[in-house]
Amino acid sequence: MHLARREPDTEVGHNAAGGWMVIAMLAILFVQAGTGLCANDDVLTEGPLALIVGKERSDWLTHIHDVNFTLIEIVVALHVLAIVTYRLLKGHNLLMPMVTGKKRLPGATRAPRMMHPILAAFVLVFCALVVLLFLFFVGYMP
Q1: I want to staple 35 with a disulfide (CB 3.0 to 4.6 A). Which of 61, 78, 80, 102 is the partner?
Q2: Which pLDDT belongs to residue 61?
C-alpha cells in the first residue's frame, strides 16, 4: 500500500497501522485510569486508592498520570492527522465509518458479520460488575 496512491478502500476494519494505534490508545487510556485511581493533587482531591498506596507512591503515580495525559493528547492529534491524511491523499472517508459504524466497501469485499447487540449488553453489565466489585473490595463503596 502506498499512501499517495489513490485506490479503493478494501479494508474491512483498521489497517495494520490503525490496529496498532487502537492498541496504543487502549494501553495509554488504561494507564490513565489506573494511575488516576492513585493520583492526588495535594489540595482537594485524590483517587480512591491514594491512601492505600501511600503519599510517596501516589505522588509518583500522579506524575505518570500528568505525563500520560500529554501522551493522550499527542496520540489523539496523530489519529486526527491520519484521518485527514487518508482523506486528502487517498480519498478514503474514515470519519463516517467511525461515527456511524458503517462503511461502503467495493463490490468484491465481503462485510464482516456483526455480533448480536444483546451480547454487547452482557459484556457491558459484566464489566460494570467487575468495576463495582473492585471498588467494593478496596473499600471505596459502603
Answers
A1: 61
A2: 92
Q: Any residues with CB less than 8 A from the CB of 14 and at least 6 apart, and which?
A: 21, 22
Query: Which residues in the chain belong to E strands, given as ranges?
Result: none
Q: What tens digit of pLDDT does each residue of 72-105 get?
A: 999 999 999 988 988 888 787 888 877 777 777 7
- State how many domains the chain has: 1
Q: pLDDT band at 127, cuts 50/70/90? A: very high
pTM of the predicted structure, to 2 decimals: 0.68
Residue 25 lies in a domain: yes
Measured CA to CA, the distance from residue 38 to residue 50 in angstroms comes to 4
Would you put residue 139 in left (φ > 0), alpha (ψ -120 to 50) or beta?
Answer: left
C-alpha separations of 78 from 13, 38, 75 in Å = 18, 28, 5
